[in-house]
UniProtKB/TrEMBL annotation:
Gene Ontology cellular-component terms listed: membrane
Source species taxonomy: Eukaryota, Viridiplantae, Streptophyta, Embryophyta, Tracheophyta
Pfam families assigned: Ank_2
Protein name in UniProt: Uncharacterized protein
Superkingdom field: Eukaryota
InterPro entries: Ankyrin_rpt, Ankyrin_rpt-contain_sf
Length: 336
């Protein structure tokens, strides 16, 4: 693939079948290689010479060239193939992974936004929708995650699966819990958003008379919008979970690790506040060491989380004297 298209064109004119022939030991065609190496010109010209059926060819690893295009993140590569064969969109690759899932897992927002436009709810199984939801949340594509939830709003069974299913409970993947668990490491604090919004408004006011490129404004707006959208997704997941009256929230949010304790470890006040505001009983959830979240906050030196203890009234007196499995109370842990 080091040469220019003109050189390859000479060979293909002599033998057009080379366009769809396997050229590597892994069963890759020239299109596989061109897509994998992000050679846009090669891809465009090869697609012209191939039939729509030939584009569905898989290598020995179980991937079409379209899967490689999705993995590249270059929308132009995917668009030229998809225009010739729409079935590429739903042709699963290795381990039955859809191209859209590949792009989402790799964090290619532009590619995901492009492919997502063509997806219908019936194109994916509910498990695939869940995997896509998890990937979009992890990679800060919260607008798409919110759309996935909205798409399944009228299907109670599907929504239940999206809200309650836990990632990584089978296979070799690390257990990470429900979709809501993914927000443990995300800042969804209202106060932070308000502060940043004030800074943004001040910046725009100061430089109102200066003609700045639109991308400069986006640099300031993007983090703010990401946080707002992240909170919207978290709130939607939480509200849907609260609607399920037959669900034990302590069990759902307690595995693979108690969500409040994980949030306390990293100082995620926004998530803790959101959950406990509408379900205060979660404050009493203990981890495997019989610790409450305030014990965890002290142990991990998260002062902002520990300060929430002043908002729980007389409950703080009971928690203050509570001891863990090693007979350590909060004062003992503070001295460690």
């Amino acid at each position: 693939m080091k040469g220019e298209w003109q050189d390859a064109a000479v060979l293909l004119q002599r033998d057009p079948q080379l366009a769809s022939a396997e050229i590597t030991g892994s069963g890759d065609t020239a299109l596989h290689m061109a897509a994998a190496t992000r050679r846009t010109k090669f891809v465009k010209e090869l697609v012209k010479m191939m039939s729509g059926t030939e584009l569905l060819s898989m290598n020995k690893h179980g991937y079409t060239a379209f899967c490689y295009a999705a993995a590249s993140g270059i929308v132009e590569l995917a668009a030229v193939m998809l225009e010739k064969n729409k079935n590429l969109l739903t042709t699963r690759g290795n381990k039955q992974t859809m191209p859209l899932q590949i792009a989402a897992s790799l964090g290619h927002k532009e590619m995901v936004s492009y492919l997502y436009k063509f997806i219908r709810v019936e194109d994916l199984s509910i498990t695939e929708w869940f995997n896509l939801l998890i990937a979009t949340i992890r990679n800060n594509m919260h607008d798409i995650a919110l759309n996935i939830l909205e798409m399944h709003r009228s299907n109670e069974k599907s929504m239940r699966y999206l809200v309650l299913h836990k990632d990584g409970l089978s296979g070799k993947r690390k257990k990470t819990g429900t979709a809501l668990h993914q927000f443990v490491v995300k800042d969804i604090s209202d106060s932070s958003s308000a502060r940043e919004e004030a800074i943004l408004k001040r910046f725009l006011t100061i430089f109102a008379a200066v003609r700045l490129p639109s991308r400069c404004k986006r640099i300031f707006e993007q983090p703010l919008m990401q946080r707002k959208n992240a909170r919207l997704v978290a709130e939607r997941l939480w509200s849907e979970m609260l609607r399920l009256e037959d669900v034990n929230l302590f069990e759902v949010l307690g595995e693979p690790a108690p969500i409040l304790h994980e949030a306390a470890k990293v100082g995620n006040v926004g998530l803790i506040s959101m959950l406990t505001l509408s379900y205060p009983d979660l404050i009493w959830q203990q981890d495997n060491n019989k610790r409450y979240i305030f014990h965890t906050a002290v142990l991990h030196r998260q002062e902002n989380v520990f300060s929430l203890i002043h908002q729980i009234g007389s409950m703080k007196e009971l928690i203050a004297i509570a001891v863990d499995d090693n007979n350590n109370n909060i004062l003992h842990l503070a001295g460690n």
